Amino acid sequence: MVTIFYGIDGDLKSNDSGALLRYMGGNTGNLLFRHALQECVVDLSNCDVIRLPAGVDLFRSLDAKTCRRVLSSALVIYPAANLLRPSKNYEVNPQIQRETHFITTLCQLFHGPFLVLGLGYQGVLRPEYPSDRDLHPDQIKLLDVLLRHTGAVALRGSTTLEVIRQYDIFRHAHLSVLGCPSLWISGDPQHGQSLALKELPQKLTKIALGLPSHPEDYPELFRQMVAMAADSRVHLVVQDESDLQACRRANLPEERLHLFSSLQPWVDFLQSCDLCLTARVHGAQVAVLAKTPSLLIVTDCRMEELAKSMALNWIAVDQSDLPNLFTDWSELARHVSRFDGDAYDQNRQELAIAIIQYLNRLDLPIHPSIQHIGGGLTGRCDWSDQLSRDAPSNPLVDLDTEAYLQRYPDPFLSRQNLLGLAFHAVKSGNVWASLDADQALPQAYSLDLAARVADDLVVLCGWCSDLSPTAQLMIRHAKGASWSSLLGKIRLRRPDVAEALGCWSLKEPDFGFLLAYPLAEPGHDPVSISIFGESRTIELQDWRHRPSADVINDLLDLCQWFHTPVDLLPGLLERDLGRAISANLRHAKEHDPHQPWLDLITWLKAVDPSASAVCLVCLDDVLKARIQLQRLSLYGTLQGGRLAVVVLVDRDVACPFSGLSLLDVVHRSTADWPSVYALERPLDQSWDGWIKDLTLQIPSRYSACAVLRCEALSSASDWIDPLLSSCFQQHSGFDRLIPSLQDFSGQPSLKPVAYLQKIPQQSFPPVSVAVQTDPVLVDSSSAVHVSGLQTYPANSREAWRAQVDHLLWR
Amino acid sequence: MTYKLLVVSHGHPAITPGGGENAAYALHRAFQASSGWQSVFLAAAPQAFFRSSHDVEPFGSSGDEWVLRKTDDWMHFQSTVDLKIDLDQWAWLKRYQPDVISVHQIMNLGLDILFRLRALFPKARFVYTLHEFLLMCPFHGQLKTLDGRYCHGPDQRSCSDCLPALPERDVVLREMRIQAWLPMVDQFVSPSATVRDRFFGLGDSSRAD
């Protein structure tokens, strides 16, 4: 498969000169160049050829099949003639900039050679300073990319070569001067000699004239040529829009204006002319093809370079005898006759040899006519067998467009075809490669962390590309013993690993693992792990003395709470994560010199004897704490010193306005209370567990314990006082007295969020009775709030912490 | 004998020149000019007006004007300041020992600082000036519905109508907070009989002037 950009396909028949010019890229001279490139240089007789004409919307109009064929091309031919410019000219020429950037990226889409033949530099004819012939960094980059991709670049002439060679990075680059591809349209090795032998008639009756492009740059030349065109024997060959407009402004008759949409009619026309005087290179080339004597007026360095490299008959625009030629046709005839046919043929043969060497270097088959012109020198390959024609497979052909658009949602991209997305992927550097679902993943793994969380438990965390239920690792100890473990049914989601492995479209990239590995004996540390037969040393961190809250947070981070579905958390807590947390808390408790229980019981024993009851207040919210404590502060039982208040607060709760922790808010709010003790709930105990333990350990001097759970909002009036009074007299057979409870809408509630418990408790479970009091409010949202599942986003560390708390301790 | 007045305002007119701020400040200046009275002005102010990390600091050069770090809690009026009164930043207040505390608005101040002042100065008389219905109406304190009609509330249903995104729980908690504050006020000052009558539909009107 070969793709030719800006291909010429057949003879366009249209009366619309604008449409014709657009098809030919704005200049009919491109006909010659493009025709030569696609038909006369590389032997494509054994190839399927895709011609992408000028003006086609490459990234939208081609269907998927064509896109895949294009991307699979063994060779891409791209005509880029006058692309290189002085940097100042480049900066003010957006079209050239676009083309430069486009080719720089385009060539990287293909695995086969990207052939740019006849690349040339467009500059002034007589540069004032050497710096007038420089290159813009974008174009230096283009050349560099072309050279890296294909290995060699063909230039049209020595001027272009000189300009490029002045840059150090190209000093030793494979740059070959091969002239313009239009040289190869004629397959006759003696074409030049045939032309030289043609004699001009005594009286010239038909002259072909070619106006300069950009006539505003050469006003005098243009004026002289238009004046010459007034003669009815002169016919203008129109090549672009500026020619058309100039001719119409000069009121030249339409019958003497000629625009050609294909090569043969152009050749036929020029064969009917006596001679051709043109300021267009390709206009002169067609005249040579037609074996019509011609003279090229050179106006810039590009034309000079081409004229020299192709041994054309030429005269510089600033040459003193040029103006005579427009009026003195006999002088014109003499100049035209100076064409050196031998030099032309000799030059063509040398260039043919050069191009044969160039194409051999790229392992491309050479057109037979070039081989003939080159004196029978043959090419190395001919692509007659499939094997030689096949390009290395291009993975871009398999780009999953749907997955790419999903990954990079962009309304502009959504309208692009495979070629457009491939171009975007290469230009942006976006990851696009993905393995198929049934394609084997590469064998890879990593141990991200190994930490000792207790004397006898080590946590190992990492990832492994083996997603099977039987995936396992081997752990080795210093004494050489080993232990194998399955990585577990519950794996952690690691999209970062999926991207690194190139399977980013995998829906459940559960590569991560977290293992709690029990040590057979303390100190019997693991030294290495092994998966896929590849061993990695373990660097063991010691987390035993870190605060347990931090350890739990870090363990949850290792579980990738942001990515791992939260419904896997219960399973993780039943297994390794739960074991790790429990072991760490147990270790902390065993080694923590500070025993909050002892301090609290000691304090309760030391409270003023007037306190006959304990009031246990549980708080998990700053706002409710403020309301609760403010109400309690007005209770007669509290002000009278009859209550020893114990305030138990949840950890990691703070006021969003002052930033104070809940514990600090409690301290501030109870500063004037006669007997109050505030502490944070230990990590390893649920609210229920704590309340139960406290009521069992309250010193016997207290006769009752009033409990207000987190969900309770105490009544404005003192409900504890009447219950304390009636506790033993009226309700002696009961262990627990429950005040009136109602929810926020005023409906009775049965949730036992507040009660007065007799100390010591006689019956298990306690026998309860409801007593009419000022209602205590039940905040039903509190339980949900504490569980964190409704309050926090599901994939947040707070939600995971709250669920850890809820599942482990409630 | 010189009586000491503490005027507590939701803002300083030099920072936010609103009507309530100006009224409070005018009261302060009037009492300063009165014989037998000393006055200190304590106003809530935004973070930008604090030179230090303290919650309360002097404002201006007069020595009798202080600013207090404002709160953004317009629903439940939780104060931002650290209420630990032993801190050095409150030493000036403990020395001053006001006899009368005139409070203008609870917004920006928060209720907790007022509860703290009440606990600190149990013998001081608290006077609260009603500037609008903020104590009653969580919807901008105007007692007007979404469509501009006067509200007969507050009640849970009508508050939910104006603030549908507000959970019922938050409305109840707000009311609990305000109901806890009202008994602490010794005297209300109302700009009009209308405000007084609307307001004291909530409770005891005997303290309203």
3D structure, described in words:
The complex is a heterodimer of chains A (810) and B (209). By secondary structure, chain A is α/β, with parallel strands linked by helices. Chain A is 37% helix and 16% strand. The radius of gyration of chain A is 45 Å and the shape is elongated. Residues 783-790 of chain A have low confidence and may be disordered. Chain B has helices at residues 19-33, 91-96, 111-120, 156-162, 168-181, 193-199; strands spanning 3-9, 37-45, 56-58, 65-69, 100-104, 125-129, 187-189. Helix content of chain B is 28%, strand content 18%. The two termini of chain B are 26 Å apart. The model of chain B has no long low-confidence stretch (mean pLDDT 86). Chain B has a seven-stranded mixed β-sheet, covered by helices on one side. At the A-B interface, helix 27 and helix 29 of A face helix 3 and helix 5 of B.
Concise description?
The complex is a heterodimer of chains A (810) and B (209). Chain A has 810 residues and is α/β, with parallel strands linked by helices.
Which stretches of chain B are low in confidence, meaning pLDDT under 50 for 5 or more residues running?
Answer: none
DSSP strand (E) fraction of chain B?
A: 15-25%
Query: Most extensive chain contact?
Result: A-B, 23 and 27 residues
Radius of gyration computed on alpha carbons of chain A: 45 Å
**Largest beta-sheet characterization of chain B:** 7 strands, mixed
Weakly predicted, low-confidence segments of chain A: 783-790
Q: Which secondary-structure class do the elements of chain A indicate?
A: alpha/beta
Helix content of chain A: 25-40%
* Relative strand content of chain A: 15-25%
Computed over alpha carbons, the radius of gyration of chain B is 17 Å
Largest sheet of chain A: 7 strands, mixed
Distance between the termini of chain B: 26 Å
Shape of chain B: globular
- Share in helix of chain B: 25-40%
**Distance N to C terminus of chain A:** 69 Å
